[in-house]
Write a structure and sequence with these properties.
By secondary structure, this protein is α/β, with parallel strands linked by helices. The protein is 43% helix and 7% strand. It has a five-stranded parallel β-sheet with strand order 2-3-1-4-5, sandwiched between helices. The protein starts with a helix and ends in a 6-residue tail after the last helix.
């Protein structure tokens, strides 16, 4: 992988976008990469979408989303599998003839990708035998506009955590990969994306610290927001087959099957300047 590919790969990881050359270099008969594809709601939601009111947990990395996923998945009506990353699934026309054929049906590239995303999630939901699907992929925060356009009836739960705790946990997840400073900078990208999503969408905000200190009250709030009955068994989520290494947290706390206390909150003097504005914005420190 050359340096251009590495830069482009990093750009895609942190922003969800890639740099692509438009036009030149395409093989004869193939459709060139479009400069910009219109992203639009389903033309007919009744036929274009199989899912109804999917649930998305918007959260930074290392914010407790796997714990929340496990709690929700323990509900008899909610299927919350491992991180799905459906926004990474792409559609390629392959030829100009195929592109023209799809356009004649009213589909552009984004429309077809939305159909694919919807089908993948709907299939997973049907196989679970439950009524509602929950996706908690942290990188979804970078694509909140696209997701809310794909599913106009989607519901959102915003999971927050003290920014310093997020950064520390992100560093501890792979100390050889990122320094504490790099972890803070990297995690801040996710926090900013979640904050943009909170401004642009309506939904329920939950704090990791509240979830670990008083799980029943927080889970009841979520159930009320989703218009489903609270089930006490959610707090004893137990061992779950959808806990998959590499697709969410894999620590012993999660695998214990019960909510464990969160780490002690950092003091005001432990907050680096880089994270202080977000700490203030999320109400963890007073401006």
């Amino acid at each position: 992988m050359n340096w251009k590919q590495k830069v482009n790969s990093a750009l895609g990881e942190f922003t969800g976008f890639h740099i692509a050359k438009v036009g030149g270099g395409a093989e004869p008969g193939t459709a060139p990469e479009p400069a910009e594809v219109e992203v639009r709601p389903p033309a007919d939601p009744r036929t274009d979408r199989l899912l109804r009111a999917p649930v998305f947990v918007m959260s930074p990395v290392r914010s407790g989303s796997t714990l929340l996923r496990a709690l929700l998945n323990a509900h008899s009506l909610l299927h919350a599998p491992h991180e799905l990353h459906v926004r990474r699934l792409k559609v390629d026309f392959g030829t100009t003839l195929a592109e023209r054929a799809m356009h004649a049906l009213g589909h552009n590239q984004a429309d077809l990708e939305h159909l694919l995303w919807d089908r993948v999630l709907h299939r997973e939901l049907l196989r679970s035998g439950k009524s509602h699907i929950v996706d908690k992929t942290p990188a979804n925060a970078f694509a909140w506009e696209r997701i809310s356009t794909c599913w106009p009836d989607a519901r959102f739960v915003f999971l927050l955590r003290h920014p310093v705790s997020i950064a520390r946990s992100w560093h501890e997840a792979d100390p050889a990969k990122r320094t504490p400073e790099e972890a803070a900078s990297d995690a801040l990208r996710y926090m900013k994306a979640v904050q943009r999503a909170r401004k642009g969408l309506t939904g329920l905000t939950v704090r990791y610290e509240d979830l670990t200190a008083g799980p029943e009250a927080e889970v009841r709030k979520i159930c009320e927001y989703l218009a489903i009955p609270y089930e006490p068994g959610m707090l004893r989520y137990g061992e779950q087959s959808v806990l998959t290494k590499g697709l969410g947290d894999w620590k012993d706390k999660i695998r214990s099957g019960e909510v464990q206390p969160g780490r002690e909150l950092p003091g005001a003097d432990e907050i680096p300047d880089l994270l202080r504005p977000m700490c203030e914005r999320w109400g963890y420190v007073t401006p």
